[in-house]
Amino acid sequence: MAIIADEVFLDFTLEENRPPSFAANRGAPTFTLSGLSKISGLPQMKAAWLIAGGPQEWKREALARLEVMADTYLSVNAPVQLAIPRFLEQRHAFQQQVISRVRRNLAELDRQLSARKASSRLTVEGGWCVVLRVPATRSDEDLAIELLTAQGVSVHPGHFYEFASTGISS
């Protein structure tokens, strides 16, 4: 079995200390994935990459199999190939816009949560979603349904992500 690490959110780190990448992993079979759709905000430009990490023998066999699949099914079209250098240059401005917006949104959420002492958010490690810890007055699913029907707010109950306790939603 291999670890599959989707690291597109590493480029959107909100804190000063960026988490380490799985790309340098040598101990366990690992696939690290990224692509233009997330890091450059270009979902229509189909270009992605994969880094295989882990024991050398495993990597050799995995890459040989992946090469056949990539050559057969995953070719990148010529216009995207030619534009990749420019897309990668422009990604920094896009990422800064996203990070700035997410920071403003988190500041507003924190401001609103400060008035509700019983609720808090967990540390955001990547992406633009938050995990909230709320009072367990009912099941996570009942709370999610009430928020959707009464407030028009879509949340995922914590049990979708196998949180150990109730009162956590994302």
Largest sheet: 3 strands, mixed
Shape, principal axes of CA atoms:
globular
> Could you list the spans in which at least 5 consecutive residues all have pLDDT below 50?
none
Q: Quickly give the structural class.
A: alpha+beta
Helices and strands in order:
Layout: E1 3-6, E2 30-35, H1 36-39, E3 48-53, H2 56-73, H3 78-114, E4 120-121, E5 132-133, H4 140-151, E6 168-169
Parallel strand pairs: 1-2
Antiparallel strand pairs: 2-3, 4-5, 5-6
Notes on the protein architecture:
It is a single chain. By secondary structure, the protein is of the alpha+beta class. It is built from four helices and six strands. The chain has helices at 36-39, 56-73, 78-114, 140-151, and strands spanning 3-6, 30-35, 48-53, 120-121, 132-133, 168-169. The model has no long low-confidence stretch (mean pLDDT 85).
Keywords:
alpha+beta, three-stranded mixed beta sheet, 170 residues, three-stranded antiparallel beta sheet, 6 strands
In short:
The protein has 170 residues and is α+β, with helices and mostly antiparallel strands.
